[in-house]
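> call design_seq(struct)
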């Protein structure tokens, strides 16, 4: 993976990078979700949905990015890492974030069908686990939601 560093590394800039990854998923016929893991201003993991291509129910953008980040750090604990995702995580991805001790999650659109940050269940902000992920919601939400809507509109045609 080549190192990517953005000019000021704002949440919006990193989310735009995640949206580019989601666009790749869209072009490949996958649900357009992209995710990028950042530590100290550098990309240490990135992914986009690959469930169809890999025939793998766990090949979500967030899982791919988390795995790459852990590999890059040579540590499963992702302390000090921020994950940017275009969509609210599902229970599997949210559980992986808690297990990884992810410091921060920033995401775009809510997921009213599978969302695990309060839309359906809340796995990221419960005192029942030994770790709580700091969450920033709604960054470039309309862009993320628009891409998802366009994808599902295309599927229905």
């Amino acid at each position: 993976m080549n190192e990517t560093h953005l000019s000021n590394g704002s949440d919006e800039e990193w989310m735009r990078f995640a949206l580019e990854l989601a666009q790749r998923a869209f072009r490949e016929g996958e649900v357009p979700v992209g995710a990028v893991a950042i530590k100290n201003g550098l990309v240490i993991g990135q992914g986009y949905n690959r469930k169809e291509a890999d025939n793998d129910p766990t090949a979500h953008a967030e899982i791919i990015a988390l795995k790459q980040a852990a590999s890059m750090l040579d540590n499963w604990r992702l302390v000090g890492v921020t994950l940017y995702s275009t969509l609210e995580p599902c229970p599997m991805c949210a559980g992986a974030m808690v297990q990884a001790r992810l410091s921060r999650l920033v995401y775009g659109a809510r997921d009213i069908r599978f969302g695990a940050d309060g839309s359906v269940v809340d796995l990221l902000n419960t005192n029942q686990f030994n770790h709580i992920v700091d969450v920033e919601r709604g960054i470039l939400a309309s862009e993320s939601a628009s891409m998802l809507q366009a994808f599902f509109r295309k599927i229905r045609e």
